[in-house]
Design a protein that fits this description.
Strand content: 15-25%
Radius of gyration: 26 Å
Strand order of the largest sheet: 5-3-4-1-2-9
Helix content: 25-40%
Order of helices and strands: HHHHHHHHEEEEEEEEEE
Oligomer: single chain
């Protein structure tokens, strides 16, 4: 009598085990995906923005990723230019969400006003221009915003600089809210930046716009701009929200540095300090608050340590 053939039975058992293992893996993967989907995803924009701006969040997110800009920084420009109205045309002729100037003398390469009223077209052009002036400024987004408003030739004038200060005020509020701090603790905000290129250590901390009046409080560390040059070297600008004029105390858990303006330290040549000098409480020269006699040297530069606070004297403009 021949022994029973066990191979088919063993093969069937192995196949059954493999199928069960595969089904279990599928169930586990589906469960993990369900858990991930159930977790709240971080919002694209800070909650400080109203619905008129929040409605463009998806468009902003795509362009922010392409051009390396913080979505809230783009939203701050939209807030100042149009408050979220895609059909708005300014007295100067700037069109749409980001106040883009249409085709005209010297700007023949731009779309006409009719096309710029399309939100997708307007955002693509506006964010592209904004990223370009930030790159040209070497990370000095205050100067870049002034140039975005009036061009580099007018970037040192009062009106474009006031525009830049308003955008940074709104942007600082957005960053503070993301950091869990009420933006209402200050009546005015600005930002401070650190500029890093490749493996080179970050530049000294630059406080842009108006200097803080009650010590330097740094909130919501994040990257406001990132890029990679043709050689593959990374370049990015780290930013913090800074309250200029405090209305309420800042949470004690947040980073803070007291700024002492009594030093006669000359931090860099060719930069005239805003006061006799600036230093931090521990004598560290890593905070720079200075006026720039001329913004011309910023134009088209790949890097810079200079910036222009909004309260520089007339002689510095």
């Amino acid at each position: 009598m021949k022994p029973p053939k066990r191979a088919p039975v063993l093969l069937t058992a192995c196949l059954s085990a493999a199928i069960l293992a595969l089904l279990w893996a599928v169930v586990q993967h589906a469960g993990a995906r369900s858990e991930t989907a159930a977790q709240p995803q971080p919002a694209i924009l800070s909650p400080v923005w109203a619905a008129d701006i929040q409605q463009w969040a998806a468009h902003i997110a795509v362009l922010a990723d392409v051009y390396g800009l913080d979505p809230d920084f783009i939203a701050a420009v939209i807030k100042e230019e149009s408050n979220g109205r895609a059909d708005l045309v300014s007295e100067a002729g700037a069109v749409g969400l980001m106040g883009v100037m249409p085709a005209g003398p010297g700007l023949e390469w731009r779309p006409p006003a009719e096309e710029l009223q399309n939100p997708a077209v307007n955002l693509r052009w506006g964010v592209g221009i904004l990223a370009e002036v930030v790159r040209q400024s070497g990370g000095d987004v205050y100067a870049a915003l002034a140039a975005y408003s009036g061009g580099w030739a007018q970037a040192g004038n009062r009106v474009p600089r006031a525009y830049a200060a308003r955008v940074l005020d709104n942007y600082g509020r957005a960053v503070a809210a993301r950091a869990g701090q009420s933006p209402d603790i200050a009546s005015q905000w600005t930002i401070a930046v650190e500029i890093t290129r490749g493996h080179v250590p970050a530049e000294p901390l630059l406080v842009l716009g108006s200097p803080p009046q009650a010590g330097l409080h740094l909130l919501g560390k994040h990257i406001i701009y990132r890029s990679v040059d043709a050689t593959g070297k990374a370049y990015y600008v780290v930013a913090y929200a800074v309250p200029v004029v405090l209305a309420e105390p800042v949470n004690s858990g947040l980073a803070a540095m007291a700024v002492n303006q009594s030093s006669d330290m000359d931090l860099y040549p060719q930069v005239r300090p805003l006061t006799d000098g600036v230093k931090t409480a521990d004598n560290s020269p890593h905070v720079l608050i200075a006026c720039l006699p001329s913004l011309d040297r910023l134009r088209g530069q790949a890097s810079t340590r200079w910036f222009a606070p909004s309260n520089c004297t007339i002689s510095d403009r």
